[in-house]
Amino acid sequence: MHPIIQITDVNKVYASGFKALDNINLAIKPAEVFALLGPNGAGKTTLISAICGIVNATSGQITVAGKDIVYDYRHTRRLIGLVPQELTTDAFETVWTTVSFSRGLFGKKPNPAFIEKTLRSLSLWDKKDSKMIELSGGMKRRVMIAKALSHEPAILFLDEPTAGVDVELRKDMWELVRQLRNDGVTIILTTHYIEEAEEIADRIGVIKNGQLILVEDKVALMNQLGKKQLILDLKDPLTDIPSDLADFNLQIQNEGMQLIYSYDTTKEHTGISALLQHLSAASIGFKDIKTDQSSLEDIFVSLVKEST
Predict the structure, then answer these.
(1) How far from the centroid of its chain's Cα atoms is residue 159's Cα?
(2) Could you tell me the pTM of the whole model?
(3) The domain at 227-294 falls in which architecture?
(4) CA 239, CA 133: separation in Å to the nearest integer?
């Protein structure tokens, strides 16, 4: 299967000398949800802008559906829908006019039925005759998404789509993304909400200082890098870890009432049986035992620290 987006040796250096993108290589598969994570200033928005033709790369090549975004700009841009971070709309136009006009900009014939379907999917139908100035920030964000979908793009970019919006919209967004993926739309998402990527992404990319430091399938990433913890609630508080248990790298928490043992789920032997035997030999009793899996946020923080 050929990638729908191919990024090859892309660099972006501004006149000031600041290198926003540093030799980016990435292939995006058709109908996948790709989440791009990174701290502020990492290059997420610059990379999206370069793919959409808003920012010109200093060097390298970007193709969309096999077409070069520079030489075939009109063709590639029609394939792309973009929801930017900033809310930019005509304050005195209605929701219906705003979304319909956006469709026309891409040379699409009027299709009231499709516009209605899009507005309904974003819970905007009852606001179709409202002026943009009358809407809340969350509703304006929904309209931005409707605008991006108005010309039926094959690729949808969501640049921090749920930043500063309510939980209801975030859940609506997740459901919409799943439906679009089922319909064959490729979605590239940047987000500060790690749980958002964990919930809906197929693959994860981590970018820092303009460099793509990791690209991995979400499940594989969490299996490879996610650590599991065994949490033991002790019967009596423990102030120090006995020397016989030093090899287990245990941590004491909750004022000495918990022991934390981290282990790798991919290894043949987790060491749990040996730990429990040593605890018994040391007369350390526990009243409860449970496990906890590292989240994508834990992994992301770890990756960013390691690349510093």
Answers:
(1) 9
(2) 0.73
(3) 2-Layer Sandwich (3.30)
(4) 61
